[in-house]
Amino acid sequence: MSKINQGLQKIAPVTIAVAMTVTSVLPAQAAVQVASDREMGITTAVPETYAMLLGPRSTLPTVMIPEFELVFSDSATSQITRVLKGATRECRALASEYRASCAAAAFKRAASAASRPDYRAARSALNKASRDLSRLVSRNADRSAPTIGSGRKKYKAVKKAAVRAVAKQAISIISETQTKLLRSSGSVKRKTHYKRIAQAVGSTKVIFRS
Question: 36, 95, 109, 133: which could join 104 in a potential S-S bond, CB 3.0 to 4.6 Å?
Fold first, then answer.
């Protein structure tokens, strides 16, 4: 046997081992993102790093990633609901013209707390509520009133004459967000956690009921 053939025999097992390692690691590392993207209707491509290791794109093997249950957690859900419940107490303590701005900031903080991939739909709904409330405040802003608070908790006033109308529209925004969360599709576990978030969202309506 030639020295070249002997060399190839030594290299082949190493090549096979590397390929097997790459193809076995890929599902574990990509599973969370792929499952989350699948839920949102996004097609996830094989990362470029793996493409370089496995060879040209035309020769890439098909990697089958098994379905799995997205992992929701009581602590992660509680973190979101605590933000909303805390905001209810805080915002109600403010003058009525500042409450919509306070609620908008609270929904934004709650969305930030929903940072995990399995809470993506909740994060989207909470962010939308925050944007809608912020636009509501901007449309009815009292430019002569001072901004109160500091840091991430800076609140703007709406015109006193618009307080009732703003409160009504704010409750409508909150109700829409709550409904969207309650109608979220998925497993029983997902629905259970989203129901808790929806209930916390609904509790913020009291901010606008004096």
Answer: 133
Per-residue pLDDT reduced to its tens digit, 59-80: 545 544 343 345 788 889 999 9
Same domain membership, residue 178 and residue 88? yes
| Whether pTM exceeds 0.90 | no
Q: How far apart are CA 169 and CA 160, in angstroms?
A: 15
Question: Residues with Cβ < 8 Å from 67, sequence gap 6 or more?
Answer: 35
More confident call, 195 vs 38: 195
Distances from the Cα of 65 to the Cαs of 35, 172, 176, in angstroms? 9, 41, 35
Count: domains in the chain: 2
Structure-block tokens of residue 138: 């901007």
Scanning the structure block, which residue is given the tokens 């590397």?
18
Please tell me the distance from the alpha carbon of residue 127 to that of residue 198, in angstroms, as a whole number: 14
Token pair 């969207």 is at which residue? 180
Q: Is residue 54 part of a domain?
A: yes
Is residue 121 domain-shared with residue 173, that is, in the same domain?
yes
Kindly state whether residues 168 and 111 are assigned to the same domain.
yes
Range of the domain at 142: 74-208
